[in-house]
Protein: Cardiolipin synthase N-terminal domain-containing protein
Amino acid sequence: MIRALMYILPLALTIYAFIDCLNTPEDEAKHLPKVVWVIIILLFWIVGPIVWFAAGKMRRPPVGGRTPSEWHRNHRHEWVAPDDNPAFLNSLREENKKDEALLKDWEADLRRREEELKRREQGEGKGEDKGQP
Structure:
């Protein structure tokens, strides 16, 4: 069991550090860009995660500012269902008008083509009758 833990524990720590690094905002990664931290975590899979947790991530809010998660907590937007959202309903009406206009154009074009086809068929039928004795 202890032998298995020697392999499972560093692997689990590496996966956790990798996901933590990916989820950390760019401005909270210290000393190096996030891409470099990801490479360090993956290449040095035993030491990399420990270095990430020790030196890579800012653990306290920046001086004079708030973390993005604090900003999101204070600036929640009230969600409105699409059926109750007037802007969404207006956009649907506008799309409906565009679709109806397009459908009318297609129907008019189809009627015109059908009439042309009927005229051609009638013209060919009359021409054949005239040519026969």
